Amino acid sequence: MNEVLKSNGVKYGIILGGIGILMHLIIYLLGGLTKENAITGSVIQFVFWLGYLGVRIFQCINTKKEFNNSITFKELFTTLTIAITIGIFISQLFTYSLNNFIDADYGATMNEFMNKQQIIAMKAAKEYVEVSNQDIKDIANTDNFSIIKTGQAFVMSILISSIMNLILAAIFKSKTNPLNE
């Protein structure tokens, strides 16, 4: 693998991880996601999502420059995937540590809030989907910050981010085929 791709992937991955940690810290310092500040938390998450997007766009531009404006779709997708994998891993590791070790009481409160919100959503969807009492009990007993749930969130985040990576790589790849020049 090209050293520039690897280097940029790691560098921007660490930046993305730092952004993720900063977002979680700000939400934590505001008291977490609660009914009272759900809108504020959502706005913060959206702003940080835009920051993530901005960093990835900058990564595309910078990497393309380092390739003398001649880069393939695959090369861009590769460096973006390295970056999001590292960034999401750092962010998820911090979230897991915060909610399970650093402030387990906060984690328990956030877990309870998340479960209540899922139950509300499940009951609202009862018209469209069959929801049993067992389903509701299962949600109420879910540990959203367990290693398994954190791993699932990691994989889901990678998959969702990969869609954006495909779009960004398609937008920023070289318009001509570098092999034909």
Task: Walk me through the topology.
Elements: H1 3-29, H2 38-66, H3 73-102, H4 104-124, H5 133-140, H6 147-172
Helix pairs in contact: 1-2, 1-3, 2-3, 2-6, 3-4, 3-6
Extended strand count: 0
Distance from first to last alpha carbon:
22 Å
- Label the overall shape: elongated
Estimate what percentage of residues fall within beta strands.
under 5%
Low-confidence stretches: none
Structural category is: mainly alpha
Q: What does the average pLDDT come to?
A: 92
Give the biggest sheet.
none
SSE order, as H and E?
Answer: HHHHHH
Q: What share of the residues lie within helices?
A: over 70%
**Rg over C-alpha atoms, rounded to the nearest angstrom:** 20 Å
Features:
mainly alpha, 181 residues, elongated, single chain, 78% helix
Description:
With 181 residues, the chain is mostly helical. The mean pLDDT is 92. The radius of gyration is 20 Å and the shape is elongated. The chain starts with a helix and ends in a 9-residue tail after the last helix.
Summarize the structure.
The protein is mainly alpha-helical.
